[in-house]
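Checked the freezer inventory, then went back to the computational side. Two predictions to log before the end of the day. The first one is the construct we discussed on Monday; recording sequence and C-alpha cells without edits.
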Amino acid sequence: MNKFTEVFNNERPHEALNMKCPAEVYQPSTRSYTGLPDIDYPFHDKTIVVTHCAAASVWGTRKINFSKEVHEDIWLVSFMDYDLGYFDLETRVLEPLENPFGPKVLPM
C-alpha cells in the first residue's frame, strides 16, 4: 500500500489536476483538527461507552446514546444528532437504519 500511495501522490499525474500529481497541489488546512467536542444528551435516557469488543465496535470507544425505549427492550440508538438504529436488549443486536446519517434525531 505504501508503494501505491507514493506512486499515486508523487509520480502519477491526474487529469482532474491538469496533469499534476496530488503532492504538487496539496495544501494543508489552515484549521487544526481538535476532535469532537464533549457531547451532551440532556433529554436522553442513558449514555454508555461502547468498547472495542462490543457488537457496535465500528464506533470504537465513542459514546453511544440509547436515546429512548421505543418498545419493550428495544432502544433507539443515536450518536450526536443522528439516529443509528435500534438495539434489542434481549438479543443484544443492533439493527442499523438504512442510512443512519440521513435522518436527524426524532423529536421527543
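The second is the one RB wanted added to the comparison set:
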Amino acid sequence: MNNIDFEKDQTDVLEKTENLKSLADQVKKLKNLEDQIKIGEQYLKDKEKESERISGEVIPTLLSEMGLASLKLADGSAVDVKPYYSANISIKNREAAYNWLRSNGLGDIIKNDIVVSFGRNEDNKAAEYANLAKGQGYQPTQKLKVEPMTLKALVRERIENNKDIPMDTFNVFVGNRTKITRKQ
C-alpha cells in the first residue's frame, strides 16, 4: 500500500501559495514602476516643450523688444539668442531636392553608396566582383543621401549669406534658441 505523507503535501501547497503571493507582489511592483516611468516621461516631455517655448519664443521676443541680442547677468552668467536652423529631405521631396542641389553646383554633398551583398562562403565571388564590378552580373543596391548635419550647415550658410534655397523642398525651419552661459 502507498504511504501518503499528508503533512509534506500540505507544506508543499503552503510554499507554492507563498511563492504565488510573492510573484503577484513583484508583478504589482513592476506594473507600478512602469506606470511611474510613463508618468515621469510625460512630465519630462512637458518640461522640454515648455523649455523650447521659453528658449525659442519668450526670451528672444523680450530681448528683441528691449533692443538687445544678449545680456550679462549680475551673477556673471550670460544670455544670448542665436538663430537656429533645421532641415531635412522627405522621401516625397527627395528627387526635387537632389535635382536642385545638382543644378546649383552642390551635388557633391549627396552621398552615393553602392552596396553589394554576398552570401556565406562567397569570398571568392566578392573578390571577383570587387575587380570586375557589374561585369559579373550582380545588381548592386544604390543609396543616395545627404548627411543631416551637412544639410543643416548648407541651409545656415545660404540663409546667412542671403542666397536662395527652396524652403519647402528641404523642410527648412528657422527659429531662435536662447543659450545661457553659466559662470564657471
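For RB: The helical segments are 6-65, 94-103, 123-132, 148-160. The radius of gyration is 31 Å. Let me know if you want it refolded.
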